[in-house]
């Protein structure tokens, strides 16, 4: 059974993951991932195996809720840099 809140996405062949509350800013977040990766998460695969193409900072957000912009020492900015996601 999956420990993740995974929903159908408006994007084809994708799923949206509701991430835990960030301990730094107190907000939850959403990450859109390939459907195959979401399926692997639901099957119990570790996030690094289910979504190896996803930047490590976004995988961290999925597991801990820490946003890339909130991570200590990270560059602060608006939103998520699309270059962090390397899809098929």
Element-by-element helix/strand order: EEEHHH
The percentage helix is: 10-25%
The major beta sheet can be summarized as: 3 strands, antiparallel
Q: Structural class, from helix and strand content? A: alpha+beta
Spatial gap, N to C terminus: 26 Å
**Shape estimate:** globular
The DSSP helix count reads 3
- Computed Rg: 12 Å
Describe the secondary structure blueprint for this structure.
Layout: E1 5-8, E2 14-19, E3 29-34, H1 35-42, H2 47-50, H3 56-64
Antiparallel strand pairs: 1-2, 2-3
What features would you highlight for this structure?
three-stranded antiparallel β-sheet, 88 residues, single chain, 18% strand, alpha+beta, globular
Task: Please explain how this structure is put together.
The chain is of the alpha+beta class and 88 residues long. It contains 3 helices and 3 strands; from the N terminus they run E-E-E-H-H-H. The protein has a 3-stranded antiparallel beta sheet.
